[in-house]
């Protein structure tokens, strides 16, 4: 793997752009101050070269050049882990490996192969994989296989599953996530098979735009607050968000008393506004954004990179 550039800050998030198998990928490591890296470290991997789904707000969906191999995903992890833990022994209580950068992970069977092997490759008692999906209709076999991987290979509570559903209005949901996707009933039926006592709650994630339609009472018809967790995220300023003139419904100004959060809480849902870090958003380290800009020739990366040696040209 050839690292083309890196951008960000050691104490917050570092985004890497790399060439692997003649194609461009990006991956991220991040910490969440004030929690130290010794306590929690998050590695965010790409699973596809681009993404065929083309969600409205995501830059990764502008092209698709295929699946990343298991070795290609291990190369991403190793690049972040090796400088600190060359022997692959990682004593961090929470080591999250998120399959949430470029690509819908359920479209790549190599992700399942990697998840079967991860506990053997890394000596990491805090290892917690996090699979985030928009639930394309083709994901059935992948997600069913994932149930036995979670149950057989990971300790209870050390596997996270997220469905990014974005809206309770079917039309708007399909506008944001083109193509065939599971209905809420299909997600709920799967959730019954997935969830067992001791598991982490399944996350329902909404990227919230100003004119989003999100009705907590509709969610309550399908999803049990004892098994599901609500995550509300600001709409990140990707090129596609700007192109489609979408505005984030969650801002620095309104985040403190965001009414939608209390509406979910009133129905019994544990609810989080996942703002990460505003500075991280300003860095622009959003899903697929940099690799796409690199491929389009919109960025310049210095060869002898240091942090911040990544210059947007427009
Ligand atoms: S949001 Fe996820 S599924 Fe949608 S285009 Fe981006 S990477 Fe693909």
From TrEMBL:
<dbReference type="InterPro" id="IPR040072">
    <property type="entry name" value="Methyltransferase_A"/>
</dbReference>
<keyword id="KW-0411">Iron-sulfur</keyword>
<protein>
    <submittedName>
        <fullName>Radical SAM protein</fullName>
    </submittedName>
</protein>
<dbReference type="InterPro" id="IPR013785">
    <property type="entry name" value="Aldolase_TIM"/>
</dbReference>
<dbReference type="InterPro" id="IPR058240">
    <property type="entry name" value="rSAM_sf"/>
</dbReference>
<dbReference type="GO" id="GO:0008173">
    <property type="term" value="F:RNA methyltransferase activity"/>
</dbReference>
<keyword id="KW-0963">Cytoplasm</keyword>
<dbReference type="GO" id="GO:0030488">
    <property type="term" value="P:tRNA methylation"/>
</dbReference>
<dbReference type="GO" id="GO:0051539">
    <property type="term" value="F:4 iron, 4 sulfur cluster binding"/>
</dbReference>
<keyword id="KW-0489">Methyltransferase</keyword>
<keyword id="KW-0949">S-adenosyl-L-methionine</keyword>
<keyword id="KW-0004">4Fe-4S</keyword>
<keyword id="KW-0808">Transferase</keyword>
<keyword id="KW-0408">Iron</keyword>
<dbReference type="InterPro" id="IPR007197">
    <property type="entry name" value="rSAM"/>
</dbReference>
<dbReference type="InterPro" id="IPR004383">
    <property type="entry name" value="rRNA_lsu_MTrfase_RlmN/Cfr"/>
</dbReference>
<dbReference type="GO" id="GO:0005737">
    <property type="term" value="C:cytoplasm"/>
</dbReference>
<keyword id="KW-0479">Metal-binding</keyword>
<feature type="domain" description="Radical SAM core">
    <location>
        <begin position="36"/>
        <end position="270"/>
    </location>
</feature>
<dbReference type="GO" id="GO:0046872">
    <property type="term" value="F:metal ion binding"/>
</dbReference>
<dbReference type="GO" id="GO:0070475">
    <property type="term" value="P:rRNA base methylation"/>
</dbReference>
């Amino acid at each position: 793997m050839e690292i083309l550039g890196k951008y960000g800050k050691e104490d917050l998030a570092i985004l890497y752009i790399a060439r692997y198998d003649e194609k461009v990928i990006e991956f991220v490591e991040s910490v969440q101050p004030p929690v130290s890296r010794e306590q929690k470290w998050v590695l965010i991997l790409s699973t596809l070269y681009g993404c065929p789904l083309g969600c409205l707000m995501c830059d990764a969906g502008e092209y698709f050049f295929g699946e990343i191999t298991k070795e290609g995903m291990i190369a991403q992890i190793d690049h972040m882990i090796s400088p600190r833990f060359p022997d692959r022994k990682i004593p961090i209580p929470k080591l999250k490996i998120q399959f949430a950068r470029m690509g819908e992970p359920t479209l790549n069977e190599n992700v399942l192969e990697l998840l079967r092997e991860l506990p053997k490759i890394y000596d990491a008692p805090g290892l917690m994989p996090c699979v985030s999906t928009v639930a394309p209709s083709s994901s059935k076999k992948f997600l069913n296989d994932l149930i036995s991987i979670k149950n057989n290979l990971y300790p209870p509570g050390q596997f996270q599953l997220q469905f990014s559903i974005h809206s309770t209005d079917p039309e708007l949901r399909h506008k944001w996530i083109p193509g065939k996707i599971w209905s809420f009933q299909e997600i709920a039926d799967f959730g019954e098979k997935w969830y067992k006592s001791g598991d982490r709650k399944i996350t329902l994630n909404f990227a919230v735009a100003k004119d989003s339609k999100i009705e907590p009472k509709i969610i309550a018809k399908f999803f049990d607050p004892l098994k599901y967790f609500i995550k509300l995220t600001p709409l990140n300023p990707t090129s596609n968000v700007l192109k489609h003139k979408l505005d984030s419904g969650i801002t620095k100004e309104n985040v403190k008393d965001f009414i939608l959060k209390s509406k979910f809480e009133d129905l019994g849902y544990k609810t989080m506004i996942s703002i990460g870090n505003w500075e991280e958003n300003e860095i622009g380290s959003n899903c697929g954004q940099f690799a796409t800009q690199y491929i389009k020739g919109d960025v310049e990366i210095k060869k002898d990179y240091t942090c911040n040696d990544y210059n947007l040209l427009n």
